[in-house]
Specification:
Order of helices and strands: EHEHEHEHHEHEEHEEHHEEHEHHH
Bound molecules: nicotinamide-adenine-dinucleotide
Structural class: alpha/beta
Distance between the termini: 12 Å
Number of helices: 13
């Protein structure tokens, strides 16, 4: 179930990924080009050094445009020349703590960037499917036990979370205003949880922080150890996005909605539990220290209800948290051992598909 099992959907499909130089964007571009889709990317230069995009050495496999999502004219030029059939919009300022430092930039990129994307897409005749990637943080967080459902209200305490709630509202308004019932163009949005996997070096995320500390034999400072998160391997939401695009292509009016792609409940764990397991998997003697400094507000309890994706898309998570952590730690170990990371990453995609 889920992804088109005989791989017949993606070959030769023209796809634009915004944010293709990022962590999730690089994995998606790799996966889609491996399935012989014609991938064009639009994004700023990678922010971190190292970064997955450069590690995978992508130049030859996709058409790589560097541009700002806040620049409507530049975006329109790329979209009009690429003539995509499918757009996956992932370009964003994705960090809560950075959003406290730069709220204006975060809203400009995440909200107006989504407006620009929708505007450029609606004036391009080739487009049939638009998928806007937001976040589990788009929901108004009530710090409650149950997982948020797609019908729950949008919200957000911090600028990042709120900007993703706003991006959802923008998507919904464009859908209702310009892609009405009967339209051949499908517009969906996807809300996923805390993604882990090889190739993320973003600051202030626990996995990159841990891998950086462990590989350099430094003490890992664990911020918000008690925070509960829905952890999932990066390939999980990406398979959800691909499944949703396939369904939207076939039946636009049925699937043009918001969708949650989270893990099963067993993977909803604290930062501390995840950190301890990562240190076990890394193996060498590593040092952990709970950080007690003053923290900016971040939600402590966040779960997603994924019943709708399971029942209507036939999508279901494949890797439990322990498998996700094993794949992640082994990816970074291979990287720090100087192995071929393109091969390693393709192998993990194959393992995911086969599981
Ligand atoms: N990583 C997670 O745990 C997670 C969880 C939920 C949702 N998301 C969402 O998934 C998407 C991808 O996240 P990621 O973790 O890969 O982030 P990332 O920082 O690795 O990648 C972000 C991408 O967006 C691009 N970008 C940023 N600002 C831009 C701008 N002004 N113009 C053009 N491109 C710009 C970057 O160049 C990069 O390609 C984001 O929309 C993020 O909000 C991520």
């Amino acid at each position: 179930m889920g992804l088109n099992s005989d791989n017949s959907f993606w070959p030769d499909k023209k796809v634009i990924i915004t944010g293709h130089t990022g962590f999730k964007g690089s994995w998606l571009a790799l996966w889609l080009s491996d399935l012989d889709a014609k991938v064009t990317g639009y994004a700023l230069d990678p922010v971190t050094d190292p970064n997955l995009f450069s590690v995978l050495d992508f130049e030859k496999s996709i058409i790589d445009h560097r541009g700002d999502i806040r620049d409507l004219s530049a975006l329109e030029r790329v979209i009009k020349s690429a003539k995509p059939e499918i757009i996956v919009h992932m370009a964003a300022q994705p960090l809560v703590r950075e959003s406290y430092k730069d709220p204006v930039g975060t809203y400009a990129t995440n909200v107006m960037g989504t407006v620009n994307l929708m505007e450029a897409a609606r004036t391009c005749d080739s487009v049939r499917v638009i998928l806007v990637v937001t976040s589990d943080k788009c929901y108004e967080n009530e710090e409650i036990e149950y997982g948020y459902r797609e019908i729950d209200p949008m919200g957000g305490h911090d600028p990042y979370s709120s900007s993703k709630g706003c991006a959802e509202l923008v998507t919904s308004a464009f859908r209702r205003s310009f892609f009405e019932e009967g339209s051949a163009v499908a517009v969906g949005s996807a809300r996923a949880g805390n993604v882990i996997g090889g190739g993320d070096w973003a600051p202030d995320r626990i996995v990159p922080d841990a891998m950086h500390a462990f590989s350099g034999k430094e003490t890992l400072k664990v911020r918000n150890p008690g925070a509960v998160r829905p952890w999932q391997h990066v390939l999980e939401p990406l398979s959800g996005y691909m499944t949703l695009c396939e369904k939207m292509w076939d039946q636009p009016s049925e699937f043009s909605e918001g969708w949650n792609f989270g893990p099963e409940d067993e993977s909803v764990r604290t930062v501390e539990e995840v950190t301890i397991r990562m240190s076990d998997l890394w193996g060498d003697h590593v040092a952990l220290e709970k950080s007690n400094g003053s923290h900016l507000h971040e939600a402590t309890l966040l779960k997603l209800n994924i019943t709708k994706a399971k029942e209507k898309l036939g999508w279901t998570p494949k890797w439990d948290l322990d498998t996700a952590l094993q794949k992640t730690v082994s990816w970074y170990k291979s990287y720090y051992n100087g192995e071929n990371m393109l091969e390693m990453s393709l192998k993990q995609i194959e393992e995911y598909r086969a599981s």
